[in-house]
Amino acid sequence: MSQGGLEVERIRKQYAGFTAVQELTFRVEPGKFFSILGPSGCGKTTLLRMIAGFLDPDAGDIRIAGKSQIGVPPNQRPVNLVFQHLALFPMMSVGENVAYGLARRGVPRARARDQAAAMLVRVGLPGSAGKRVDQLSGGQRQRVALARCLVLEPSLLLLDEPLGALDLKLREQMKVELKQLQADFGTTFVYITHDQSEALVLSDQLAVMNGGHFEQVGTPEEIYHAPASAFVAGFVGEANRASGTVVGTQEPHVEVELDGGLRVAVRCAAGLAAGSKVEVFLRPEAIRLESDRHGASDADTMIHGTVDAALFDGAHSTLLVRAATMATPLRMAWPTGTTGAFPRGTPLKLAVRAGAGWAFAQ
Question: Which CATH architecture does the domain made up of 240-361 adopt?
Answer without folding.
Answer: Beta Barrel (2.40)
